[in-house]
Specification:
Number of domains: 1
Strand content: 5-15%
CATH topology: Undecaprenyl pyrophosphate synthetase
Largest sheet: 6 strands, parallel
Order of helices and strands: HEHHEHHEHEHHEEH
CATH superfamily: Decaprenyl diphosphate synthase-like
Number of helices: 9
Structural class: alpha/beta
Strand order of the largest sheet: 3-4-2-1-5-6
Shape: globular
Distance between the termini: 47 Å
């Protein structure tokens, strides 16, 4: 063990001891795979694969800390505009990782339920087949929830919900007076099974939430943690710093209510 790694380990433990309030639901915008690859002289596919490895580590950290829900922004509707070879490489990586999830002993031992949301009509059939197989293999679990946004766009979700509600009103199944925030949430594919987001983490030194869960995150005043490391370089120290931000916010609310 190097002196640097030893100091990092001590700092990790120090940060972990500070955290009293753990968020129930964390949403992560995994940004910077391509920038990481360029900086390391790697191909784009290798950057995405390194990012997928980081995702596995983060899931372990979250589980160990008692987080109940993790939601990952893995592929947006805007990502379809990328180079075709990159998109195909990503879909191949997704297929591989979903197959791994379906048989991973940690998933079954920890009773992790895997769920995917987004526009499934945009996914290739072989990827969709693996998605559905993984969901089926974990359908009865409820200790921990891993939610993956694929072909997802937050504004697109709200538009689809609005259309569905209008159809119900047109058909007489709903009255306009019945439309309220709770009803809209029922018609959102993410809102049907995701609780409000407590903490958003975005890597890659970008300070925006990029159309991710606008109803459940932006609309619920979630805490937001922006950090510089690209996603493949995201460390446990960075994760704990994000949890500390949330913890400090909760403590501030408690102190404010008592004052």
């Amino acid at each position: 063990m190097t002196a640097r790694s030893g100091l990092e380990g001590l700092y990790e433990r120090f940060l972990g001891w500070q955290i009293e309030n753990v968020p129930r639901h964390i949403a992560i915008i995994q940004d910077g795979n391509r920038r990481f690859a360029r900086a390391q002289g790697l191909g784009t596919d290798e950057g995405h694969r390194a990012g997928a490895d980081t995702t596995e580590r983060v899931l372990d950290w979250a589980h160990d800390m008692g987080v109940k829900y993790i939601t990952l922004y893995s592929f947006s509707t805007e990502n379809f505009r990328r180079d075709r070879a990159e998109v195909e490489g990503l879909f191949s990586l997704f297929k591989e990782r979903f197959e791994k999830l379906a048989s991973d002993e940690r998933v079954h031992r920890r009773r992790i339920r895997v769920r995917v949301f987004g526009d499934r009509t945009l996914l290739p059939p072989d990827l969709l087949e693996r998605v559905e197989a993984t969901e089926a293999a974990t359908r009865t679990y409820g200790n921990f929830f891993m939610n993956i946004a694929l072909a997802y766009g937050g504004r697109n979700e709200i538009v689809h919900a609005a259309r569905a509600i209008l159809r119900e009103v047109r058909d007489g199944a709903l009255a306009p007076a019945q439309i309220d925030p709770a009803l809209v949430e029922e018609y959102l594919s993410d809102g049907r099974y995701l609780p409000p987001v407590d903490l958003i983490i975005r890597t890659g030194n970008e300070r925006r939430t990029s159309n991710f869960l606008p109803w459940l995150a932006s609309g619920k005043e979630s805490a937001v943690y922006f950090c510089a490391p690209n996603w493949p370089a995201f460390r446990k120290i960075d994760f704990f710093r994000a949890l500390r931000l949330y913890d400090q916010r909760i403590r501030g609310k408690i102190t404010g209510s008592q004052g």
